């Protein structure tokens, strides 16, 4: 049975979160920003420190104490499992995953003393590879390679022996490991030519559908195995690198029209029935839909984002500006990526002036 003892925490945070958003459309700026940068740009020492911090988090004791959970890694995975039919196929898909990425990074610092950048996977760069096993992400000194055997469990890298336990609601916790089936073909939708369509969207209502489609599916499909499990994918640490990349793409899209895109929000609040039927779940229950912070089925800046009791609830409005106090990040992009985006922007301006 799903444990919902933390739901009062969700409701208790409602008034504070909504009030904050109604009084200000911009988050207060933070003073010390955390760099979010491609794994490919990290130094050897930074990569080692990050891997060690992840291993530390995988050993840190549970805070949620849900059935089967033993570690903070289990807790993070459970937060995603429990809300799979809440924050997928909806307008707050990108804000929720931005906050989830940030909470994961905060736990690395709080629990494991990590002080380095939060890496993301530059999938656009790796999309040109002929073999994904050549990616810096999937080396034995990084996240390990593809899986083998009947269950495609990984056998190389520092996470090969990681014991995972959390499964979708209704299934009892039991041990399993990270499975992968690397496939570079799925990264085709991470190529710049494929991303251009999303960068050309002029409203969030259109953009989130674009980013949540093929670009979102790129890293999940290319990694395969556990990463294509809509519920349990955060069990593979590559999940955070992938969603860090997707969030970087959304942020770059936001920067093409600031400050307007710091308040541009929309999309449905409740996933389509056809989507949750494919998941094998029902629509979100009242314990989720009654506290969203807005009326109707349109996502607003007042929509509340919860990661259970791993961090305080925030609103969509609180995470729109990555330089604000909640996200507190500085995104680093490769020179080649920035050059490509500048070309796209110049094209927009030429079309507009003509």
Strand order of the largest sheet: 2-1-7
Distance between the termini: 61 Å
Which CATH class is shown? Mainly Alpha
**How many domains, in number, for the residues?**
1
The secondary structure category is mainly alpha
The tally of strands reads: 7
Strand content: 5-15%
Q: Spans with pLDDT under 50 lasting ≥5 residues?
A: 1-24, 349-354
Mean pLDDT: 89
Q: Provide the CATH superfamily.
A: Di-copper center containing domain from catechol oxidase
Q: What is the overall shape?
A: globular
Q: Please state the CA-atom Rg, rounded to the nearest Å.
A: 19 Å
Could you estimate the helical fraction of the residues in percent?
40-55%
Number of helices: 14
| Biggest sheet layout | 3 strands, parallel
CATH architecture assignment: Orthogonal Bundle
What are the secondary-structure elements, in order, as H or E? HHEHHHEHEEHHHHHHEEHEH
CATH topology: di-copper center containing domain from catechol oxidase
Signal peptide: 1-17
Protein name: Tyrosinase copper-binding domain-containing protein
Domain Tyrosinase copper-binding: 236-247
Pfam family, one: Tyrosinase
């Amino acid at each position: 049975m799903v444990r919902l003892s933390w739901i009062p925490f969700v409701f208790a945070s409602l008034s504070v979160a909504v009030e904050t958003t109604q009084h200000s459309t911009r988050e207060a700026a933070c003073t010390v920003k955390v760099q979010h940068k491609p794994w490919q740009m990290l130094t050897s020492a930074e990569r080692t420190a990050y891997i060690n911090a992840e291993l530390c988090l995988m050993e840190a004791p549970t805070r949620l104490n849900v059935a089967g959970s033993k570690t903070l890694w289990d807790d993070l995975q459970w937060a995603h499992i429990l809300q799979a039919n809440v924050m997928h196929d909806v307008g707050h898909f990108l804000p929720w995953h931005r906050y989830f990425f940030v909470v994961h990074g905060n736990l690395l610092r709080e629990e494991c003393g990590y002080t380095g950048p939060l890496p993301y996977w530059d999938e656009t760069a790796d999309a040109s590879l002929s073999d994904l096993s050549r990616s810096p992400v999937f080396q034995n000194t990084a996240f390990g390679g593809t899986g083998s055997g009947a269950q495609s469990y990984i056998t190389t890298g520092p996470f090969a022996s990681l014991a995972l336990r959390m499964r979708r609601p209704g299934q009892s916790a039991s041990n399993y490991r990270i499975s992968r089936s690397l496939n570079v073909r799925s990264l085709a939708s991470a190529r710049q030519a494929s991303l251009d369509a999303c960068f050309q969207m002029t409203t969030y209502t259109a953009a989130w559908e674009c980013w949540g489609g093929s670009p979102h599916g790129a890293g999940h499909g290319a990694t395969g195995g556990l990463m294509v499990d809509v519920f349990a994918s955060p069990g593979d640490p590559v999940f955070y690198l992938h969603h860090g990349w997707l969030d970087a793409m959304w942020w770059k899209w936001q920067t093409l029209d600031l400050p307007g895109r710091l308040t541009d929000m929309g999309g449905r609040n409740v996933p389509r029935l056809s989507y949750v039927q494919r998941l094998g779940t029902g629509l979100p229950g009242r314990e989720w839909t009654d506290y969203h912070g807005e009326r109707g089925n349109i996502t607003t800046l007042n929509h509340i984002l919860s990661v259970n009791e791993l961090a305080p609830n925030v609103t969509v409005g609180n995470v729109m500006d990555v330089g604000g106090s909640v996200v507190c990040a500085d995104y680093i992009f490769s020179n080649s990526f920035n050059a490509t985006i500048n070309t796209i922007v110049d094209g927009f301006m030429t079309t507009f002036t003509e």
